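B., you asked whether I could sanity-check this one before it goes into the benchmark set. Here's the sequence:
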Amino acid sequence: MDDPEERFTELYDRHYRNVLGYALLRAERQSAEDIASETFLIAWRRLAQVPEHPLPWLLVVARNLLRKQRHLELRPLRLTLSAPEGDVADQVGERQAALDALARLSGADAEALILTSWYGLGPAEAAKVVGCSARTFAVRLHRARRRLADMLNSSQTVLQEQLR
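And here's what the prediction gave me:
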């Protein structure tokens, strides 16, 4: 694509929601919108440097802007999960258990799971976003999945004991 405006418009239309969603996990709405806007401002200024597969690059920019914006730990995640099929009561219980478990994970564990599950990034792409090697990220992801599963299993055990 030769026209920079066309290329940028396609980039923006295709990835704005993902960048905003990523920022919303780490900041309040207004801040997240500012981060998303600034990410695309940087993308416009550096359009020639934006790779063919731009989502990891955009998320790195957004991540760096978020890091720059604050020095404190990540704020609690505000997650919205789509409801699976099945009994509504079971869905609500499972959703709440998943949200509780995810909120108890460290920021690094939650980020690893979110980048691969929600954004569909492979370990190599996600590793670029968090600034580590693909091998290191794969280990982090494996451990994050194990911790999440352990938390979900312990939550389920506690719930079953309370129902008795």
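One thing to flag: Residues 86-164 form a domain with the Arc Repressor Mutant, subunit A fold (CATH 1.10.10.10). Otherwise nothing jumped out at me.
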